[in-house]
Amino acid sequence: MPSVLVTGASQGLGLEFVRQYASAGWQVIACCRNPASSPALQALAQGHETIRIEPLEITAGGQVNDLARRLAGSTIDLLLNNAGTMGTLPFAANLERQHFGSIDYELWDEVFRTNTLGTVRVTEALLDLVAASVQKRVICLSSTTGSIAESRRQALAYTTSKAALNKAMTLIADHVRPRGVTVTLVCPGYVKTRMNVGGATIEVAESVAAIRALVDRLTLADSGRFLRYNGEAIAW
Ligand SMILES: NC(=O)c1ccc[n+]([C@@H]2O[C@H](COP(=O)([O-])OP(=O)(O)OC[C@H]3O[C@@H](n4cnc5c(N)ncnc54)[C@H](OP(=O)(O)O)[C@@H]3O)[C@@H](O)[C@H]2O)c1
Q1: H/E run at residue 108
Q2: What is the DSSP string of 160-227?
Q3: Pick from 16, 21, 119, 157: CA 20 to 30 A from residue 10's CA?
């Protein structure tokens, strides 16, 4: 039975990844920073004995290392780095804090610590378990807004955190390629989650199903690439 570890599994895309992979017969390690506050995840786990819930705040080095210790001896076929933040919610009401002229540097720091450093931290701590698996895949949920070529979205904290994640993961992809590990950056599209309450066009289940199909097709040749949920390449 293949195994997947999902970060940010309490809601949105992360919760749906847990639902779909568990339904497909995978062993799922569903990580979230406060399991007690996600009744939806608790209910899912009650219906599937293959779901194991683990507490994980991805910015907390101690928690990340503790998780790696608890999982020692097991393998992770797919590490799904999904946890991420756009900054203080509601996003639209707080957007000015990400605009030049009214920047909130503490917010920027928090977004960077989560989206960039937290994602790299989790990947570094769990890489050996991925490398010991059969499928050896790391997927990072990035965003087209982090593309210099394709986006001019004025949200300094979020967009730069994803651009930096993209750069970091291309370097990590090179580093781990000799071990047969594929590291790919994927944008889920403009999806109807808490992050995008208005204007989003894609249903959560549709995006997750498309990403799962994409992940199935990935080979080592796709390592270090930046792809849309439908498999199209995104310009850096
Ligand atoms: N929705 C879109 O249109 C869209 C587009 C491009 C990229 N993405 C990316 O897709 C991923 C999932 O986003 P989403 O749309 O599902 O957003 P969401 O509904 O806001 O869910 C975000 C998830 O990340 C978790 N999280 C945030 N900070 C965390 C931290 N420090 N440690 C652990 N978990 C943390 C949240 O946990 P809590 O419940 O505890 O807050 C939640 O489970 C993100 O990386 C996002 O940047 C989304």
Answers
A1: helix 105-112
A2: HHHHHHHHHHHHHHHHHGGGT-EEEEEE--SB-SGGG-SS--B-HHHHHHHHHHHHHH--GGGTT-EE
A3: 157
Bridge partners of residue 226, in order along the sequence: 185
SS3 30: strand
Q: What is the CATH number of domain 3-228?
A: 3.40.50.720
Q: Find the 84 Cα to ligand 1 centroid distance in Å.
A: 4
Q: Does 125 sit in the ligand 1 pocket, CB within 6 Å?
A: no
The domain segmentation of the chain, as residue ranges, is 3-228
Question: Length of the chain in residues, anyone?
Answer: 236
8 pocket-lining for ligand 1 (C-beta < 6 Å): yes
pLDDT tens, per residue, the chain with 236 residues: 999 999 999 999 999 999 999 999 999 999 999 999 999 999 999 999 999 999 999 999 999 999 999 999 999 999 999 999 999 888 888 999 999 999 999 999 999 999 999 999 999 999 999 999 999 999 999 999 999 999 999 999 999 999 999 999 999 999 999 999 999 999 999 999 998 867 899 999 999 999 999 999 999 999 999 999 999 999 99
Residue 131: its H or E element: helix 119-131
The residue whose CA is least distant from atom 38 of ligand 1 is 10
Distance CA 223, CA 116 (A): 18
CA distance 203 to 77: 26
> What are the backbone angles phi and psi of residue 169, rounded to the nearest 5°?
-75, -30
**pTM above threshold 0.85:** yes
